[in-house]
Amino acid sequence: MAELLGDYPSLLNSFIEAGYTTRFFSDPISRSHQLLLRHDIDFDCHLAEKLAEIEHEFGLKATYFFLVSSDSYNLLSSKNASSLGRIRNMGHNIGLHFDPTRHKDTESGLKKEIAIMEDNFDLKIDIISLHRPSETYIGNDQPIAGYDHTYRSEFVKKIAYYSDSGGSFKFGHPLDSCEFHQRKSMQLLTHPIWWTLKGYSAQEVMENHITNNHKALQLHISKNCKSYHPKA
Ligand SMILES: [Zn+2]
Fold first, then answer.
1. How far is ligand 1, taken at its centre, from the CA of residue 132, in Å?
2. Cα 179 from chain centre
3. 195 φψ region: left (φ > 0), alpha (ψ -120 to 50), beta (else)
4. Measured at the alpha carbon of residue 95, what is the angle toward residues 12 and 151, in degrees to the nearest 5?
5. Tell me: the pLDDT tens digits for 65-89?
6. Which terminal CB of the chain, N or C, has fewer other CB atoms within 10 Å?
7. Kind plus residue range of the DSSP H or E element containing 99
8. Ligand 1 centre and the CA of 191: distance in Å?
9. pLDDT tens digits for range 108-119
10. Å from CA of 15 to ligand 1 middle
11. CATH 3.20.20.370 fits 2-196, yes or no
């Protein structure tokens, strides 16, 4: 949706030209010139891989947060597991994108989801991000079941924080911000879908995503059910 947000390589290039370097959430963060690149993967793992490749070409590192209990995608499918593996092999960090509303008990739900990721991908989760977090989590320094999270004050209050949630930068474009002009450190949350699919609006991007998913589901069913034949 470059029409609204700009294109992703240009965005990264602006940060590089301004002297920014990327950090992970577990790194010490200074007040200036550091960029925490974060991606919450709400809809499509393959689109995440596309952003990871762009960052890799620029020599930048990001943290990719995946859902494990969403209807959007199955992280354990061979296609999605491969995407996660390739993203990791490029040197990016992997975190859990956690939806607390999926569980009666937040702490035990979180531990179960972390175990699924760690057991299946042989990795150690050191950071989680919350999917559509309630206000109580924003700027809250308490770890959740012992796990650090991206809404801690150090990441959203002590440094600048910009997000493209819903397909737009609701609080202004980060490159137009006074924090960027002063080269202040920043957490930048972007969702791959807004930067990789065509569309002049969020509605159009999502319609394209649904069409693509529909075709993929047809193909999958035709391969697994001999009595189904997709309509031309
Ligand atoms: Zn999310």
1. 6
2. 22
3. alpha
4. 75
5. 999 999 999 999 999 999 999 999 9
6. C
7. none
8. 8
9. 999 999 999 999
10. 24
11. yes
